[in-house]
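Support reply, case 0932

Customer input (verbatim):
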Amino acid sequence: MNKSTVIGLLIGLGSLVLGMVLKGVNLTSLVNSAAILIIVGGTIASVMIGFPMYELKRIPQLVKILFTEQKFMTPEETIAIFKDWAMTTRREGLLVLENKMNEVDEPFLKNGMRMIIDGNDPDFVREVLMEDIAATENRHETGAQIFTQAGTYAPTLGVLGAVVGLIAALSTLNDVDILGRSIAAAFIATLLGIFTGYVLWHPFANKLRRLSKREIDLKLMMVEGLLSIQSGISSAAIQYKLSVFLPQSERNKEGEASKESVAGETYAEIR
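Our regenerated output:
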């Protein structure tokens, strides 16, 4: 379970309910079938018009991603793996990586390993892997855009719902009590539209983009690591090269660890 998504939703809903209670608003007023129909139906319609069906079929998968914790290799783990591979390949050659492939679960990394083991040109390897990254990034952005569009139109549909409600309210001008309740009910659609747009759909899109960026950055690190191993540079050099993907504070820690490991690496390579 993705704790930040769940906690954020609970805080958002709790803030809305508590705010309404403090203002003396009856919570049952939120249950307005006409407003819910306009907001939910209109949002679904705008999304279906804006995207082809084969992209909309991914919505359940996207929702699952939002509510489950995504497991990625950390940059530190990635650097450690490539340092180990660099030491091994400099002693025994690239073919020794075949024995390491069964230990790798990441398909992108495994594909890159296979290409460098097969002796493909570095430029070809980079081109294939970068095209893979670009395709992944484009697919991720499409998923985020679905929620962005929903968040863009939901508040406007709320205004539409309010207008419809006001039209109905103005037909009861002879009864002040009914008129007041009708006007209040009319603005429920605006409330629901703004809430869903800015507390649900836009934040969902932003989280998908952040998760995508994390995955893309990790894959870019893998590309640099694989090409560095193919070129035969030392594990210390790989660490310096891949540390650019880390925050400055983490780079300093990695740099200190690298200095401590250089002597051991040199001794191991001499042997």
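We compared this against your earlier run and they match. Two observations from our side: Residues 221 and 242 are 6 Å apart (CA to CA). The mean pLDDT is 87. Please reopen the case if you see a mismatch on your end.
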